[in-house]
Amino acid sequence: MIKQNQRKFSVINVLIDAVSVSISIIITYLLSQSVQESLEDIFHKEDIVTLIIFSLIIIVTHLIFYKLFDLYSSHRTTRFYYEAVNVLKANMVSFFALELTCLIINNIYNTQIFLIILFIVNTVIIVSYRFFLRKLLRYLRKKGYNKKFIVIIGINNCTEKFIESIKANSSYGYEILGYFNDKTSQIPQYPYLGIFKAIPRYLEANSIDEAVFMINDSNEQKLLRIYSECEKAGIKTSIIPNIFNAFSSRIYVSSFGSVPVISLRKVPLDNKFNAFIKRLCDVVISIICIILFSPLMLGVAIAIKATSDGKVIYKQERVGFNRKKFIMYKFRSMKENSEIADKMTEKDDERCTKVGRFIRRFSIDELPQLFNVLKGNMSLVGPRPETPFFVKEFRKSIPQYMLKHYVKPGMTGWAQVNDLRGGNTSIEERIKYDMYYIENWTLSFDIKILFMTLTKGIFSKNGF
Asked: Which structural domain range is residue 363 located in?
């Protein structure tokens, strides 16, 4: 039933995308007189047939790449961000494909402006349409429409958590019809459908969309035999092993050659393209900031030198990317040689100078770290680095602490803009925020954190 609905929905989606691309072509044509003139150079005004053929090529090209980028599959359990990114990728590939086509059949410069404007207009229209469609579908599913019916086969330690997720996400449109199990274990709130031997007959007599296998050590082989019965009935299957209960909810399946591999964490910055983009932004923005803040940094340096003895720049060893040590720069905010290895700075710390207390309050003491960013041992955004002493201490009591070194440390971070900075805040909470950032990194997330740093981060209640 759901498969038929999905096919119908995919066909409707294709038609709406075709209409959307057509509208984008018309809007693009009307937006610029130069576009109209360039097209008239290629297609004579009276040659309407050729113009229609060119439009059809554009529409078909986009639809082909929308299909290749998986935009006609069910996205009920995925974030909208991933769908929007796939639209962007498909439109980019379509743009280059059409540019190549125009290069072959005519002068590329005659259509380049048209294709650039079309790319922008079409991306806005398609992303907006899919955003509102997703909102509408989730609303309808909450009302009981477009349901997807599933049965649970077996019971293990993950079953309760799985059911809670289904209940918490009613907008996904899943409904559990019941469960099969050979043992006495029960799921009280759902009907018992029988022992495993009853599964083939039940699947044949009922319209089921998906079977979820809850595998544990005692029934693994038995459930795997039932898997073939589900395949014969054309039922989509999912497997949730018992061991998953012990791990994070973020589990990813990849492959090592032809062998499936389960990864317990996904780090977007492991992708070389993502890492390159982040590094490029770090270099460009740090150079701009060094130029912009150079008068302020010069003034702070003079104030520090004039009001206290000692060096202007304080250098401290910290632990960074891949657990490697590096020297981090800060404006000296304490009296010379007053640092204590096993003590964090506290509010109203007597070791701070008057100038130091002020620059720490507004995070001005962190500005020299722009040079760390330029050198490459820090990033503008990331988990804050700690000294080797505290890293050694925290790793003993906080199991996930060392995972923060998956990425480069940052001048600011998701924890800091959420008021988790300074020695009087919870390290455990900081790590939760750091891990969320590491596993959910996007360039837009970095930009959001940088803007928050300019407001909430700098004037944090925990700043001192």
From this structure: 272-457
